[in-house]
Prior knowledge:
The radius of gyration is 18 Å and the shape is globular. Helix 5 packs parallel to helix 6. Strand 4 (60-66) and strand 5 (69-71) form a beta hairpin. The protein is of the alpha/beta class. The strands form 2 sheets. It has a 6-stranded mixed beta sheet, sandwiched between helices. It has a domain at 4-71 and 80-95 and 160-252: P-loop containing nucleotide triphosphate hydrolases (Rossmann fold). Helix content is 38%, strand content 25%.
Amino acid sequence: MSIISVNDLAVSFGSGSDFKQVVKSVAFNVEPGETFGLVGESGCGKSTVLGALAGRIKGWSGSVSIDGETVGPKRSRSQLAKQQMVFQDPFGSLHPRHTIGRTLLEPLEIHGLDQRQERVEQVLRDVGLPPAFRHRFPHQLSGGQRQRVAIARALILKPRILLLDEPTSALDVSIQAEILNLLKDLRVREKLTYVLVSHDMAVIAHLCNRVAVMQDGVFVEVASREQLLSGSVEHPYTSTLLDGSRGYVSTRKLAS
């Protein structure tokens, strides 16, 4: 059974002359343990799909099922705990006046979980940071370390799904590879399922099993990783995205 099932999802903003339909009746399923990608140019609607899945965007129609349970725009705590989000900008998503320990404790307190200090120390180890980092503030960390903390915050509630919104685009290329490899390892170790939004075909090819290519709010193609790597895609827009990134993919060697 699919862990995520989306049917006829549509998202609109505004009304009257300001009305705009950003996502137009998309449908997809994600299997347990899979990484499903959403790729396309800025403004195509991919982050809006992710926001609707996460419960951050309320104005959507259609049907969404998470882990076998139909969910609406308003979610319960247990529903929210099943999937957590990692954002593009690790500095902007972490409270600048909270220590790393305080940031990681907050979701545990909200959900009433025990053994909090032990959980904080363990999740820091899980993302490759020493437990002593819990005493530091975000400005004392590098960009890669901050994104590891953001991933730790998402993991601390033991979700089944991570929603990843351009998780490496704000990082240097060398650090991007480290974070992508960390995410790949965590997916296997923690038996996670990912939905990954990116405009970067190199990132998609490195991490995703399948990818939905979005243009103007619709899916023009759903392709496998093998199709991306071989170039055997069907839609001209997908080919355009691949052609624009092919030299960059080769240079970074992320698709190996």
